[in-house]
Amino acid sequence: MKQFWLTGALRHPYWTLAWVLALAFAMAFGAKNLYFRGDFRIFFSPENPQMQAFDKMQARFNKSDNMLVAITPASGDVFDPKVLAVVKELTDAAWQTPHSLRVDSITNFQHTAAVDDDLQVEDLLLDLSQLDAAKAASIKAIALAEPALVGRLVSHDGSMTAINITVQLPEKDQNQEVSDVYNSVRAVTDRLAAAHPDLTFYHGGVIALNNAFSSEAKNDASSLVPLMFVVIVLMLGFMLRSVLAATAVVVIIVLTIAATLGLAGWAGLFLSTATVNVPTIVMTLAVADSVHLIASTQFLLREGLTKSEAISKAVRINTMPVLITSVTTAVGFLTLNFSEVPILRDLGNMTAVGVMLAWMFTMLLLPALLMVFPISHGYAEPTDKATQMDRLADWVIRHYKVILPLTALITLVTGWLMLQNKVNDEAVKYFAPATEYRQSVDVLEKKLGGVSLIDFAIDSGQPSGVNDPAFIKAIAEFALYLQTLPEVTHVSTISDVFKRLNKNMNGDDPAFYRLPEQQDEAAQYLLMFEMSLPFGLDLNNQLDLDKQATKVAVALKNLGSTQMLALEQKARSWMTEHYPQYTMEASSTALMFAHIGERNMTSMIQSLPLAMFIISALLVLSLKSWRLGAISLIPNLVPAVIGFGLWKLWSGEINLGLSVVASMSLGIIVDDTVHFLAKYKIARDEGRDTEQAIRYAFHSVGHALMITTVVLVCGFAVLMLSNFRLNSDMGLLTGMIIVVALIIDLLFLPAFLLQFDRSKKTAVVSTTTGEKQHG
Amino acid sequence: MVNRKMMGAALLCCSLGFGSLPLLADDGGKGLTIAQERKQRDEGWADSDSKTTMVLRNAQGAESKREIRTLSLEIKDEGDKGLTIFDEPKDVRGTAFLNHSHVGKPDDQWLYLPAVKRVKRIASRNKSGPFMGSEFAYEDLSSFELDKFKFTYLRDETLQDVPAFVVEQTPTDEFSGYSKTIAWIDQKDYKVLKVEYYDKKNALLKTLQMLDYQLYLNKFWRPLKLSMVNHQTGKSTDLLVHEIQFGKGRTEADFDTNALMRAK
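YS: structure for the whole thing
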């Protein structure tokens, strides 16, 4: 291969530096287009059926994006007049929230009552001057008896109350809009919290979730990426024993990351909770390329070559192996394109590009940098380290007959365990218990009731059908059925409004707390009620334009995605069984996350064989051996099996972040196999027998494999520090699989070769050993 | 808060060339003069009957229709009276809404429900909610009375080749759904061409366009199409007016609660 760039780099290092830097800057310049997105929609593609159902429902009824603020007084009684005054103050202030459409609280609840044969519709607490102990007691009695409020805006025991702010974001700059809403509400609650130290405020709802997504992403960006940098610099200094060589690697890494982010910017991508850690992952993967090249150069320098000769030779012997390992890693990440989740696809593509850029910059720029910097010769590896590897080789050769069945047994057991993992995606649990969002939501669930919602839209099939007594009856029965389910904490239904109106229209006689019997009666009660409602508190969130459909909003305990899907299915079956004439759609953010886990898992499992195939084909090409390519399948697959098996013991829950680990880690761990088998093959081709070839492989790459594993594990361990579980779980499991892969490559792979790849000369011996074993 | 508003007002005045006048309302009374002229030019129409189709649209363009009839009676120096009868949808047919506008106190409102043959008074405090699920609030449709707003003249502007006054109207009623409205009034005939409604957080909520003006009795301009667009939800409502008739000889007896029960 004519490496013209290499000659150029060695003769005119400064020219090379200049044009490569110019290229890198041109790429990096695209970073100006990058922006953060923290809304939950980044997890769903526009074709996602649940996303489409969600958008359809949001279009038919008013939007349900919300911010929920809950208040708990130290006294434990929200109906204390002082607390009610704060609730009213917060309710009034909340109307000033940017993009707000409506505000619901116990104080502005539109209470209806029969007064002098007229229908009175009024805020439960209209005027602070009316507020005394008697008024507070009456508010308490009404609120705690109101099905629309209890379990939703006030807890059963009256110890917590909530204010729900519904917003409609223009969706021009999602992230800005979310933080505008969040910060506006926070400013009010922070002020109130300072003025009323006995009150505690909690923040929930979709806006708080979106805000948590983006704030955790920013946390990762500002803490994990720099930390990773420090870790890398320390490791490089330790491995290369040369400040300037380490500096050269840092330059390569910085350029790689800048160019990766820049190209993402040019491609119109954005940063999110998933892609914000691309720099960390790329750094981890990029280090190896440079280290290989520098270590070789230092080795050749110690051998007495001139600097230019040493660099030139180091580049020549490393170009292909580093290219192969980079391409396999990139292929592993590219299979993330099969994911259902757009940001995971972005993660895969950005990392794949980053890995290839790292290879490119290493090959183009590093020779020039090494020419310019006066680098040290490094240090000669003490010989006892090599003997450690030799001893390990001896040990494996001696015990391979134990190692083989033991590995098989472990693989079977962990394989069984692996299948016991359950797919589970709960957006709430993506956040570590230490995060403010998670703590708020946990308290809300414990005190107020469920914070996961499912909306059911039931279509009567004809305009004004919502007023049809038969339809209302069906809705009421459906709501009643939902309330019998243990997971359900609150059901909000228009049938309760009809019952209340019927009672009000009949002099508040409790006997009339039932559904109207005639359609015109129901329609006119509703019309009257609607004409009495103030701005923003209309029924458009429950009824569609021509009153053909109604939305039943159900609050649930935090459910795993499996139970969530089961509940959806139960509700659908009930409807089909009892009222097949009405069509029903279900939707909510929680339901979307419940579905995405399953959908994504299916598509990732389907993509795994393809990744296996491409990567094995690359191995066959690079090893130039069908046989070794086939053998490599086992050590490449087994680590993921053992890793996911151990995961069952650790957690047992597979979320979106983990569903991509199998294909992602495959591309990384394959490097160990490539290096080991390549050396093994060289020895065999030179005519040595299996045992000698294995000793040679251990001696020449064993130590290097351990070092790269340490680097990779450190890199993925940094991800474990993320408060965002998709990232921390991904880091933990990938790290585990990489460790397992090393063990498999150093113990199982040689044992397997000893058993099944005996050379022709020793083939007879091999067969007899085999027979002995079986016999 | 107050300081910020004042500063904003001062800045606005400065930018409009009223540097010496720090208060927004102080436009030399021009806003009020325009409003008075508008009110005065529309005096003397006595009574009218009309039929209206309401076309409601959501952000996706799905439509729903309502049919109503409206009888109106002019009351000198008091608020006007209005009676609205619902024809469609069928299940509210015959439902009738009676309104007595007042100067200086809240309007009186009643609803007749034919299904139970009863008249119910409605708390007029809540006049800011949607009228029959449309983008019009009751307060957008009620008669124009001078004491319902404070007026501030903002500027002259040409709207589709028609010279117009731009007047800011701040509602005096604390239960209004708006912080302010801005009206474009044609300088020749004092027809209202366009109104922008701002919600309580001062964000633009809706825009009303009044189109297809017709001249009746050689004096009174009436728009045959009122088109309201909600900018926050993307929903809209068109009011299509047909068959306006004047001089039907209506009296106050046609607008009391007994008349409500007879309305069909």
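YS: worth flagging: Chain A touches chain B through 48 residues (CB under 8 Å).
IM: good catch. Also The mean pLDDT of chain A is 85.
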